[in-house]
Amino acid sequence: MSTKYTSFAVIGAGNVGVPIVQNLLSRGASVVVLTRLGSSTNSKLPSGAKVVAVDSTSAEAYAAAFREHEVQVAISTVGSSATMAQYPMADGAKLAGVELFVASEFGSSTLGATSGHGGAKEAFARHLAEIGLPSVRIFGGALMHYIPGLVELQSGKFRIVGKGETKISFTAIEDIAGFTAHVLTTLPPSELKDAIFRIQGECVTLREVADMYGDTVQVEYVESLSNEFVTMVQRGMNAGAGATGGTSNDLWEGHQWKGIKEVLKIA
């Protein structure tokens, strides 16, 4: 067992994956990025990262890549709609002797969820436990960068489902990535095994977010939005699912967490 992790595989090179890779490399870690066969390489990936295309349906293909690059920790950053794609990743990691698997969470807590994307993520967490692969789950609430889409700001209005009075945790993608890299490279493996981390940059209601925009947008209270999935997300937040409590923030000692106005550049 390692005393500190230094070798990582990041699966997925999107909005969350790329900054995680950047943060790991800045901490001196060895990083290989695993992509699907035939997919194009993200031009934002730093030059220090090795990029390897694998058959994303094959546990054996993942296992071969993990072994070749002596991966200790596998980090999945696939989107919520691709949760099922994590099963061959995890099975391959187990075959290759990978020590830790970071599941693609990063948003609101999915603990105890039984349906939808949250239920799929909870089922995958059970799979990791069943195959005996230690895991990490990181919950950051709603991503600050996605607030405009969450309230359909493109319509010219700030649309809130219900009353918008429930506190919600919001975290910047940069902070999620930085925290992930920080704990994975500084905490001993014993403190990472089956760990659950809860972080937040700011905890406010949607009404309070709307107030940040001042008179530049009109607030509209609605029963539903044009996008059914986003409606479901807001309703879940109204029920309290969006608050993490930020109980793990102190693990990143001295870090200044970004706020909503800074991230969205609200004057």
TrEMBL record:
<dbReference type="Pfam" id="PF05368">
    <property type="entry name" value="NmrA"/>
</dbReference>
<dbReference type="InterPro" id="IPR036291">
    <property type="entry name" value="NAD(P)-bd_dom_sf"/>
</dbReference>
<dbReference type="GO" id="GO:0016491">
    <property type="term" value="F:oxidoreductase activity"/>
</dbReference>
<dbReference type="InterPro" id="IPR051609">
    <property type="entry name" value="NmrA/Isoflavone_reductase-like"/>
</dbReference>
<dbReference type="InterPro" id="IPR008030">
    <property type="entry name" value="NmrA-like"/>
</dbReference>
<protein>
    <recommendedName>
        <fullName>NmrA-like domain-containing protein</fullName>
    </recommendedName>
</protein>
<keyword id="KW-0560">Oxidoreductase</keyword>
<keyword id="KW-0521">NADP</keyword>
<feature type="domain" description="NmrA-like">
    <location>
        <begin position="9"/>
        <end position="216"/>
    </location>
</feature>
